[in-house]
Amino acid sequence: QVQLVESGGGLGQVGGSLRLSCAASGIFFRIAAMGWYRQAPGKQRELVAVFTRGDSTNYADSVKGRFTISRDNAKNKNTVYLQMNSLKPEDTAVYYCNVRREYTGVDYWGKGTLVTVSS
Q: Is residue 28 very low, low, confident or very high in pLDDT (cuts 50, 70, 90)?
């Protein structure tokens, strides 16, 4: 059973930083992509940053230059992080870890972690 457990959310200050972690387990298939999405109140869920095959990364335009996705290569590639710098109020959202299975395209989601950015 696939489990994605996020941590590191909370209250951040405008211009400050937060770091999110996602620990994945139960993955015994090829991964097409792994990373982070977010959903702000009243808005659709959107991609934030993901690793795709070959360790390529894809970022939303709104976070480029501020957020960095990384993975823990010392252990395995099933732990990913999101370093969020220069936080803005519009970064307030529930952040979800996602794994997309290759070939089937099935998505697996964590329960989400709330990030609130206040001034």
A: confident
